[in-house]
Amino acid sequence: GASIYSASEVARQEFPDEDVTVRGAVSIGRRLMDPLSELVKIDPKSLGVGQYQH
């Protein structure tokens, strides 16, 4: 999740001067504060789900 977001175009637009690791850390922090708003930024195909969730 965080690594996918940190390499995305959205993250580059939000934090153009920051490193990928910083963008990932921001994503993790935001996910702690408001998980849903952070998860909607990620392509659903990239989310890790259990083997029985399709």
Briefly say what this structure is.
This protein is mainly α and 54 residues long. 56% of the residues lie in helices and 0% in strands.
Q: Tags for this entry?
A:
54 residues, mainly alpha, 4 helices
How would you describe the overall organization of this protein?
- The chain is mostly helical and 54 residues long.
- Helices cover 56% and strands 0% of the residues.
- The chain has one domain.
- It is built from four helices and no strands.
What number of domains?
Answer: 1
- What structural class do helix, strand and pairing data support? mainly alpha
Strand and helix order: HHHH
pLDDT average, as an integer? 85
Gyration radius (Cα, Å) is: 12 Å
Tell me about the largest β-sheet: none
Distance linking N and C termini: 17 Å
Number of helices: 4
**Share of helix among residues?**
55-70%
Report the strand count: 0
Low-confidence stretches: none
